Model the fold of this input.
Amino acid sequence: MSAWFSAQVVQTGRLPLFCFFVAFVVGFTGIRVSVRLIRAGVRWWPGNVVAGAVHVHHMVFGVVLMAGGGLAELAAPVHSLGWRAGAAAVFGLGTALVLDEFALILHLRDVYWSNEGRLSVDAVFVAVGVTALLLIGVSPVGVKDVADYRPIPGSPAAVATLVVVVIAWFALAGITLLKGKIWTALLGIVLPFVLIPGAIRLARPDSPWARWRYQRRPARLAQAQRREERLREPVIRAKNRIQDLIAGLQDD
Done:
């Protein structure tokens, strides 16, 4: 195991990313355990942090940790892997605390235990998934090294092809996001071909694309709503059950 860790993490320069990932997962797990104990009214567990009449949310501490970790990372010597790894761990812990209350930041009100609060868990799942993919060496759109795409003297066609492919990829990703398919767009970072059906197929009925394009096409909107009820809603219910198991039961 130590040989694998050294070869796959340390020697590849991914130690800071690994420390970020571990600190992020530990931070999210720890804060969720804490808030569930507080919610359950466990007497021996410390309660919420209160300054006078103000409830200090843990995202405040997260912002401070992110700022400290980010500054430490910027100040770290380029070749000081240990310093950078420590700064990344602090940044990961702070990121976990902030994303755990992402829904509060978005709605500007306390929706932690409401149905809207599930958005925070979605944000955490996305961060964990993307970080895990980067940690195992997956590169966006298959790009392994910038040097792989250096302009080749006398071959402008190759450069032009690369530019067209990148523009097309961003366009497909943008359309997929506008159609409300966030997970498909994220998967398209590493598997670009999934963006094609994501951009072509029906938009979600509550997406910006549906609001812009389907309002004058009621048949299209009705078709999107039927598809949502038949295919997406069962998946959402299953996801919500998993989220409730991990992060605590929400108040629907």
In short: The chain has a mean pLDDT of 85.
